Every structure is written in structure tokens, then in C-alpha cells.
Amino acid sequence: LSVILTVDDAEVELAVYERLIRAVAWPGGAENVSFLSSADALLWAQSHDVDLAIVDYGMPALDGLELIQRLRGSDRHRETPIIMITAALEHAVRYRALELGASDFLTKPIDRTEFIVRVRNVLASSDIRKKLAARDDELMLREREAIHRLAGAAEFGGRAAGSHVARVGLYCGAVARALSLPLPICELLTLSATMHDVGNVTVPQSILGKPAALNSEEREIVTRHALAGHVLLQSGESELLRLAAEIAISHHERVDGSGYPRRLIGDAIPIAGRICAVSDTFDALTSRRPYRDAGTVDRAVEHLAKHAGTLFDAAVVNAFLAALPEITQIKARHEDEVR
Ligand SMILES: [Fe+2]
Ligand SMILES: [Fe+2]
Fold it and tell me: Which ligand is located closest to the Cα atom of residue 160?
């Protein structure tokens, strides 16, 4: 069922729209919700999705232009198709309406055929958009699931069921938001960071799952996972994989230059790597390992604070601490499934 919002201060006109909308005979059915006052329409539109809004220009109080501007100002109606009804010669008004985001115009007096065709076209494209959006959502869900599974497979010989990489991704997203990075970047980082340890596929299971601390030779083999992950991911063309490659190679760098593999210092380490370093360390300290129990959140936080500015980027540690309530929620929601 498609929803059409009609707003006009003249009851006669609303009745005309109602009749014409019925004449459109939209296959999925069209519900017409009409308002005599734009203020009432706006209030209703705050909590309802609309497939098409038809608004009169000349109305008392809030005119059609202001109504369009306010609808466009809300997240819900940023994309809603809006047709404005004007008199034939109101060119200046039309230009202004276009600037404010009107999709199309109809001229008074309404031409029956024109109205029906316009409305049908708008509903058809709105339908297609809805279907595409649903498919995007599903693709994204599948992509996310595939990445989690594959990234998790590299983790501790699959023993931790991938919860570590999922948590680290989510922690990174929370820290990035606390640093006020642009939201699309925060989302990209959340997913990219789940791949930070994919290079572990090159590390023997006997080392990854060893129920004791590693000796120096084994540690040296483990350090190769940073570069190996980068090599695996770097030929990717998407922004997602490029960022993942950057994180893979930089998440064990430390700001004082004591990290690996490139011994980068300070801001020479990409910000995504500095964020992942803090998130990854926090998760390592608060997770169970084959050879030790999980440490407490307080101890992990203490460790991060103590090494802010030496091992870890101080601003990133601050952001992590600011996001701690969210971080502990994520942790509680994504406990390891111990097998
Ligand atoms: Fe790592
Ligand atoms: Fe890790």
C-alpha cells in the first residue's frame, strides 16, 4: 500500500486530489491522507513514511515552500517525492521550490490526465527505490556475515568462534564515533577492523592454539600475521578492503616506535591502526586465552591509561575511555562462545 499525503487549505481541492488519486488506480493500492493545515500535516509526517506528498503553494501560515523546507529537514522525508501545486505563472516560486527540494510541479487548475500520469510515475519509482533499498540491506547483511565468518576462521584456529574480531570491529566503531570521525567512516571501520587478524591464516594452528605463553621464535612467527594480512587484502579495490589492509599492517604499531612490522612512530601510524591497536589490546586483556583467564575491564583500562602517549595514541585512549559505557555493553553482548 502506497501512502500519499495531500495538503491544501481548500477543502474543494482536497476532494479533487482524492478523486484523482482513486482514478490513478495504483495496483498496490494508494491511501490518501489529507490535511487542510500544513502544521497538522507536518506533525503527522514526523511519525509516518510517505510515498508521495502533494502540497499546495498558497496556504496561510506555513506555505508550500516552508512545508517543503521542513519536510526536507527531517531524516524521514529527505528523499520523499514532493509535488507542489502552483499557479501557471509563479516561476519564481517554482525555482525556489526546486532549490528547497521539490521533485515536480502541477499547475492549477489541475489537469486530470497530467495528474494521474505524474502520480503513477512517482509511485512507480518510489516502489523501485523501496525494493532496491531492501536488496541493499540484504546484501549488506550477507556481506557482513561472510566477512565475520571468514575473519573469525583465522582467529585462534577458529576456537573463539570469531567473537574477538567482531568485538574489536564494534569497539573500533565506538571509538571512531567518540573521536567524531565522519559516520560513514565509523561504519566502514567497524567492518574493516574485523579483518585485522586475517593474516593469522599463515600462522600454524599449533602456535595459535598453544595452551601456554609463546617462546620468542613462536612470537616472531605470530608477528608475521600483520604483513601477511596486508598482502592478502591490499589488492582489494573497495574502500572496505583498502582500509582493512591498512589496519592489518598497522594494528601492532605503537606510537613510540616499539611496534611492528614497520616501527612507525606517532601520527605516521594510520588513525585506523591506532584505533585498532587500543581496541585489540583491550579485547586481548579482557578475553580468556588458552593459557590464562580473562582480565578485568578495570585492569585493562588501567593498562591503556598507563601507556597512553607511549604505546597508544593518547587521544585514542581518551576516546576509548569516553566510549567505555558503550564498549562494556558491546562486550556483554558478544561474549565468546567457548567450545
Ligand atoms: Fe593482530
Ligand atoms: Fe586481534
Answer: 2
